[in-house]
Amino acid sequence: MFLRQRESLSFDRSVPGKRGMDLPKLDVPAAQDTRPAHLKRTGFDALPELSEVEVIRHFTRLSKWNYGVDDGIYPLGSCTMKHNPRLNEKVAGLPGFTDSHPMAPDALVQGNLEMLFTLQEWLKEITGLPGVTLQPSAGAAGELTGVMLIRAYHVAQGAKRRVILIPDSGHGTNPATAAMAGYEVVELPSRPDGTISFEDVTDPVNGKVRKGLQTLVRELGAEIAGAMITNPNTVGVFEYRFKEISDLLHSVGALVYMDGANMNALVGVARPGDFGVDVMHLNLHKTMSTPHGGGGPGAGPVCCVEKLLPFLPVPVVMRDTVKVGEGEVPRHTYRMAWNRPQSIGKVHTFYGNFGILVRALTYCLSHGSDGLKEATLRAIVNANYIRARLKGAYALHIDSPSLHEVVFSDTLQAKHDVHTLDIAKRLIDHGYHPPTIYFPLIVPGALMIEPTESEDKGELDAFCDTMLAIAKEAETDPEALHQAPTLAPLRRMDETTAARKPVLRWTKA
Amino acid sequence: MFLRQRESLSFDRSVPGKRGMDLPKLDVPAAQDTRPAHLKRTGFDALPELSEVEVIRHFTRLSKWNYGVDDGIYPLGSCTMKHNPRLNEKVAGLPGFTDSHPMAPDALVQGNLEMLFTLQEWLKEITGLPGVTLQPSAGAAGELTGVMLIRAYHVAQGAKRRVILIPDSGHGTNPATAAMAGYEVVELPSRPDGTISFEDVTDPVNGKVRKGLQTLVRELGAEIAGAMITNPNTVGVFEYRFKEISDLLHSVGALVYMDGANMNALVGVARPGDFGVDVMHLNLHKTMSTPHGGGGPGAGPVCCVEKLLPFLPVPVVMRDTVKVGEGEVPRHTYRMAWNRPQSIGKVHTFYGNFGILVRALTYCLSHGSDGLKEATLRAIVNANYIRARLKGAYALHIDSPSLHEVVFSDTLQAKHDVHTLDIAKRLIDHGYHPPTIYFPLIVPGALMIEPTESEDKGELDAFCDTMLAIAKEAETDPEALHQAPTLAPLRRMDETTAARKPVLRWTKA
Amino acid sequence: MRYLPSSPAEDRALLDAIGVARAEDLLTGIPEPLRLKGGLDLPLQGSEQEVTWQMLDLANKNTRFCAQFLGAGAYDHFVPSAIDAMVCRQEWFTAYTPYQPEISQGTLQHIFEYQTLICDLTGLEVTNASLYDGGTACVETALMAVRVAKKRNIVLVSEGLHPLYRQVLKTNFAPHDDLQLVEVALKDGVTDLADLQAKLNGDVAAVMVGYPNFLGAVEDLTALAGPVHAAGALLVSVTQEALAFGWLEAPGKAGADMACGEAMSFGNKPNFGGPYLGFLAVKDAHKREIPGRVVGQTKDLDGRTGYVLTLTAREQHIRRDKATSNICSNQGLVALRANIYLQLAGPEGLKGLAEQNVAKAQYLRQRLLELPDMEPMFEAPFFNEFVLRYKGDMAALQEACLAESLLPGLDLGRFYPEYQGCILWCATELHTRRMIESLVEILARVPATV
Amino acid sequence: MRYLPSSPAEDRALLDAIGVARAEDLLTGIPEPLRLKGGLDLPLQGSEQEVTWQMLDLANKNTRFCAQFLGAGAYDHFVPSAIDAMVCRQEWFTAYTPYQPEISQGTLQHIFEYQTLICDLTGLEVTNASLYDGGTACVETALMAVRVAKKRNIVLVSEGLHPLYRQVLKTNFAPHDDLQLVEVALKDGVTDLADLQAKLNGDVAAVMVGYPNFLGAVEDLTALAGPVHAAGALLVSVTQEALAFGWLEAPGKAGADMACGEAMSFGNKPNFGGPYLGFLAVKDAHKREIPGRVVGQTKDLDGRTGYVLTLTAREQHIRRDKATSNICSNQGLVALRANIYLQLAGPEGLKGLAEQNVAKAQYLRQRLLELPDMEPMFEAPFFNEFVLRYKGDMAALQEACLAESLLPGLDLGRFYPEYQGCILWCATELHTRRMIESLVEILARVPATV
Ligand SMILES: Cc1ncc(COP(=O)(O)O)c(C=O)c1O
Ligand SMILES: Cc1ncc(COP(=O)(O)O)c(C=O)c1O
Predict the structure, then answer these.
(1) Which of A202, B161, C192, D43 is 20 to 30 Å from the Cα of A223, by its Cα?
(2) Peptide bond connecting D251 to the previous residue in cis, omega within 30 degrees of 0
(3) What is the 3-state secondary structure (H, E, C) of B482-507?
């Protein structure tokens, strides 16, 4: 609507002599040029010359080719696209926060330290775990921090161990993290119900036997540093034998890492600290609604059990209580503790994505214990409603009880040569963002739908109606689906050429 | 793009039990019900029940059916749709301004008073007139204030007089204002060049003679309270005999009001105080780029000559200079002067659209004297470029030199039964907002185009190319133009039924 | 300059296409002697950083308060963050009046919703897209009443109407030698029925009363409607604190024929008095006399529902000197704020907020009355404002409050000589018990009456 | 609760359609013993007003300054208002990673533009969609260098690299028993060439130096490139103050093989250290080893140009434990801020701003050196930071500054025992001559050395 054509690259619209930024008058003597001749800036090849008008228009027009959570349901499974309250944005922009300098002495940033401490307290209570670091910038960074904690613990015990177990349903960040932390990854097979298999599993196609948890624990024993388990797992199902799994791992001295990307299904309902988790991360950009920003920034705090406390990254935010007179309310001061000899060190230059943490605390205070639980339950109800409405029309490859998301497969449509990608692209034509597709890998042609608690019945019904219409269309007019999207600004993209002959930046023609 | 369908009225989406606002916990005793029974609120028929999520989505989606200045050129003539700097919005939102109370004693709002005083000084220098009131909320309110000043002046001289002269090219607010101020309107005819006719004019169609300025002044003499003259006029042409006009009016004791809606063509280039204007208004939402807000708020300050000062609305913002020691910078304090016996009184409850005035001063400070003049010149260049490019394809009913806007007529297209409305609607299909149409009334099928200084050559060319394509299309495919718009969310609207059987609010079905 | 997009080379190309050497050559239409010689005597352009600092400096020169107990037509309520977040979308705040409906359905549908809500709140049938503010809304309403009532030329105005609204009325009635504004006295804080009766006659077009009035008191519209209607006049209810509609019956249902006033309370800060939101609502029978823009629902060529500006035959751009008003630009964006605010609040939110305002004001009054120097004045029910007589030294009270960053209520002596020594206090949902308690503590310490 | 849209009746309808009585019945997948008994021991929900006040209260507990002379990896620059105004459009800030290109061209094209600009600034050919921050960017770059250099297992790190970046490097190298981080000493404020030569050998994969370094000094990349390349290692330039790219030659043109660092200076406030913007740029030959998301240009079925995430075969969601990194979410919105900032600034703005920074820092240094207790330390050219030795009492200096709401530079003793008593000062375009003069005046009054 009201979009004339594609918005060209700003480099192609640069005109010499335009400027979008005026400089203040210089009120001190001009700079002396102290640079060696060969380090003088020679110029720029791309930096465009534009006025403010054109920059504003460029980014306004470009924005219109995006879809955001205020456009409607954004059912990306595992990504938890909730309502992003504007209050959180406003609070994060308070100058008291934004102007504060990370190198300022503790006494001058007491508000920040109290903010961090308070958020830590909320996360501890929510996870049931006594240790927290807010430093990791995202889920993957949290995973890495967590696995490094595991490693530091084992090293302190005398041996770093060699292996991390990860279910085949796990997110790609899990094995990548384990590798970055110097571990070898051994895959745990899933059962048909999507949960981790204790027993060995024989591949129905090639007959290959994949060792189950029991075998692996027995065979690898003290080689196992830990396991990284997503719970609820990426099929939206609670690992109902979690306690047994953790007991088994603990029995060989291994630790249990929980990928908490799906923690929004558990907040107020179950606490990882209560079922054997030693260390986990939370994605505040999922569970606590901090905005995704078109890719980030997020925040991936790590929570852990008592015995991992000494290894937490520095600095650790501490509260000291100032003793006051009898009957008076105690006063608190806050400080950063840097001197922690067993710490793994720093995992972020400063203290993590502070502005995101501010938003997360604002979310917590707005919801409170009652609202947090309510949000969890409603997210689960919404997912199950979609499941109830679409079951039948789409195949449920795994039929275990869904929590906050439901994963369908394209097997029913595949009969008409219609596949997950076609369904996803057709949704775009109807004005919906598609779900997560082809993940988890254990579900063929996965369509992973997570509505979150932010959708009401009206929006859920509209989405389901569309999905059902597409299922019907798959039978009656599969070609329409192969051609989709046709109403979007672009049709399907040539991703192969993009990867084979990559053009990764603009260059002067 | 990404719009599923029309956004329904929120009343139709209301669901009992939803809420978009939580109340703070009440920390005082609950209210005692002191209302008489018949004044207790019985309820609401329309107020919808929605969550914050839905309210945000509603207003986000609705916004997408609008066109704004960041979407591209917005060439509404006379409306001066300039770039709206975000700095001005930010400054107007500073809590020091927004939290300040209009009934607070002067000593507590010195910043506001200095702001108002400073803006007054800028407007005085820009118009060359020594008096200013910032109270009027818009151009029309400024006109009314101005004409009431004229009336108060005449009353003080002994007789309020009876008539206000207004050219037939004038904006509707001019005669409407004169009537609201208790005056009779006598119309001044225009010459073929668009300016006010000194001589009588014979209508070529019906042969009726319309009296020119000279005749009217001679005949009405001391009955004339004043004239309201737009300059540059609504055809974008400077009234080149302005000085003579004002001399003539002054000779019978009448005053000259200038409608300054087009002052953006004069800022830094010519000053009304220098050519005989006694009183005028400025539309800060045009000349000073304050945003139009989909209809308002604007600000219509009035500037006037010395002899009208005593009549200005109360309060008047004054500066007192505090004497300090030799060589020191003098300190200033500011106050509101209320006790002005000859004042016409108040024209706004408080001090006008303060937040808009803040934006206007920010605009002034950003541009400075050099930038203000540069903006004027570029606006004039842009209008003349469009004129040069479209001349030939569209008829210039009036060929006088254009300043900031150019008015075409549809006479060339009318031969193909294509009219101004068709051209306007076709522009929508191309993704442009149409120009002002059918105004001024003295140009048949007027297309009044004002690009402002905010457009660069690229945007001007794109617009002109489209206009030229439409002119061609008028010859080759007039029906396409009659059908336009076809790419907008709606086709042409049934305005007749809307007015005959008005539906002015939603009612429960 | 960052806002001026053309580059020197582009400028050259434009001038060449026009066929002039310099931009100044395009000024030929302006006679040489009328052109400005030399430049404007004003500072040169400023960078964004410099201008930000200059304006911040001004904003910081205003005194900041922990709590303001001042209302008097400008109410400090909590503004939900969603409002600024929506309004700052350029599609909303930069658009012009929706002259071209096909490209302005956002604004048009919003106004239609806003009109619906104003009608709902006031219990009347027709309203417009907004007026400038409370004072000018009174003017438009009074003038409309005179048009509607035909031949009648007197408008009675209760002294309980906001004194500044009355000043604006006076200014705008002055040019009309044929019209008369007559004030009706107060008694016990509300319009004096006896004085009203005395002044009602066959020339009275309308009677305007505050609801609640400037002193915070709830006028009994129903009781007033009797004599007013009996005299053949229209009863106009004027509301300066629109949040009261969450607590008080809609004026249209309580006996008023017209309702007008100020709705800044819906989503705005005090903002030193503007931009605010004037409103006016009338009965269906009077709709063709209403001033200002009005949006109506209709269909497009394909039968799809949409919205347009309508009843334009009333307006100045069509009817010129016969128009119902000269108003053109209005307060559109402030109406959008109100629309969003009301949709967020919903019926429960609005009622709940209104009740909290009453509770806070009642508590404030009760606590202030514990002070020996404070005395009650009126017994009429009040919404979030009320008057107390202060026997102490007004200047000392003022000073004591300011020293603790509290802004006290309004010294009524400024507008009502008879209420010299009285203070108009206001409390809203923004006033915590603690703030109220600190106020009382501070006042308790003010030196006793001399 | 205002964020939870379903009404009770809708909830009922949903549960009925699912076929359960209560939402809790859907928790059957969670074994009963693992469920939380009782609720969370946390406060109940808060209204927007209450939460705003709570958070405002926290924000206000931080000390505010008139001027901060502290940089050290977090620079306070002016942020044009256009940035917040754009970023707050929901289409930008709420969107997810652009997995579905047809519905995410806005984000994709922005990233492509951002990549172009990072390449332009660094003089290198390939970059990614962002990394977390300066410290983690160093980690990714060091690990990438090791992958690229094959078989070489040592990374030399100049002590001029930000001490916290070095700590992050250390943390992340710890798990890799096969890799070694070795520090290279400083001399006269820049990397000691002799020490570097001594430590270079056939096992060295890369050498990382600050440009400018933590002490503000400009390292001579070209001079360093000689020995580094001679030893077959890669030279990595690490920039913690990206505005310096407006003044200093692009590292890729000055001899560096890779450039990484922190670009928070482009459109962000200090924000207590995050979210910031890590970047990394490399040569084309190394592109398939780069970590993180990368956007490429391509065509759609109709041949129209568009953008997609590409080279995904490197990434964790495809390659799992063989991926070039585990990074998934990055700092997208901060990259958008940088993109807008750079497009507003343009070449002239960026150079001009950089020169103003140099001018302010030179002036600050000159004025500080007028104080008897201040002594110069290094002679290397510097951008907007420099080190002086302070012979006075550091605590007294700190106290004197704070009393006047000025935040002094960094006490280097915290990170460099050898520079005990030295201060790292910073000045940017935000420091006016007056601020600098007040600082000097205040320092002049600090009690003399004991
Ligand atoms: C299950 C799971 N684990 C880990 C991650 C990685 O989180 P982040 O993107 O915050 O690094 C994701 C994100 O999509 C995820 O879904
Ligand atoms: C020439 C002219 N005069 C007066 C006005 C009225 O100004 P406002 O809408 O600010 O009341 C306008 C507005 O369009 C105008 O163009």
Answers:
(1) A202
(2) no
(3) HHCCCCCCCCCECHHHHHHCCCCCCC
Structure tokens at C270: 């005090």
B436 Cα–ligand 2 center, Å: 12
The residue whose CB lies within 8 Å of the most ligand 2 atoms, and thus the one to mutate among B283, B407, B439, is B283
Q: Which helix (H) or strand (E) holds A160?
A: none
Which residue(s) pair with C210 in the sheet? C238
Burial of residue D441 (number of CB atoms within 10 Å: 0-12, 13-18, 19+): exposed
Q: Residues 6 or more apart from C418 whose CB is under 8 A from it? A: none
pLDDT level of residue A326 (50, 70, 90 thresholds): confident
From chain B residues 338-357, the ones with a CB under 8 A of any chain D CB are none
Answer positive or negative: Cα dihedral of B418, B420, B421, B423: positive
Report residue D19's pLDDT band, with 50, 70 and 90 as the boundaries: very high
pLDDT reported for residue D448? 66
Q: Is A230 in the pocket of ligand 1 (CB under 6 A)?
A: yes
- Cβ of B138 less than 6 Å from ligand 2: yes
Q: For residues C240-261, give the mean pLDDT.
A: 98
In the predicted model, what is the mean pLDDT of residues B269-288?
97
Alpha-carbon dihedral sign for residues D60, D62, D68, D71: negative
Q: Quick one: tokens of B141? A: 């309110």
Q: What is the CA radius of gyration of chain C?
A: 25
Give mean pLDDT, residues D365-382: 96
Q: Distance (Å, rounded) from C-alpha A329 to C-alpha D117?
A: 54
Model confidence at D148, pLDDT cuts 50, 70, 90, reads: very high
Does A57 touch chain C if contact means CB atoms closer than 8 Å? no
Residue B27, pLDDT above cutoff 90: yes
Q: Which residues are CB-neighbours of C397 under 8 A, at least 6 positions away?
A: C390, C408, C423, C443, C446
Residue identifier of the C-alpha nearest atom 15 of ligand 1: A261
Q: How confident is the model at residue B264 (pLDDT cuts 50, 70, 90)?
A: very high
CA distance C169 to B344: 11
Q: Which two tokens stand for residue A336?
A: 């950063």
Interface of B with C in 422-451 (CB under 8 A): 424-425, 428, 433-434, 436, 439
Q: What percent of chain A has pLDDT over 70?
A: 99
Say if the Cβ atoms of D94 and A84 lie within 8 Å. Answer: yes
ipTM over 0.85: yes
- Work out which ligand 1 atom sits closest to the CA atom of A170: 1
Spatial distance between the Cα atoms of A293 and A296, rounded to a whole number of angstroms: 5
Q: First and final CA of chain B: distance in angstroms?
A: 31
**How distant, in Å, are the alpha carbons of B163, B188, B200, B210, C280 from that of B215?**
14, 10, 7, 10, 43
In angstroms, the CA C148 to CA C204 distance is 12
How far A481 CA lies from chain C's nearest CA (Å)?
28
Tokens standing for residue B199:
């001589």
Q: How far is Cα A313 from Cα D171, in angstroms, rounded to an integer?
A: 9
Amino acid letter, D58 = L
For a substitution probing ligand 1, which of A171, A234, A287, A441 has the most ligand atoms within 8 Å of its CB?
A: A171
Using alpha carbons, select from A168, A192, A201, A232 the residue that is nearest to residue A396: A192
Non-local CB neighbours of B72 within 8 Å, separated by 6+ positions: A4, A57, B431, B432, B433, B459
B177 CB under 6 A from ligand 2? Answer: no
The reply to whether ligand 2 has any atom less than 6 angstroms from the CB of B283 is yes
Check A492 against D28: CB less than 8 A apart. Answer: no
CB contact under 8 A, A112 and D333: no
pLDDT, tens only, B58-115: 999 999 999 999 999 999 999 999 999 999 999 999 999 999 999 999 999 999 999 9
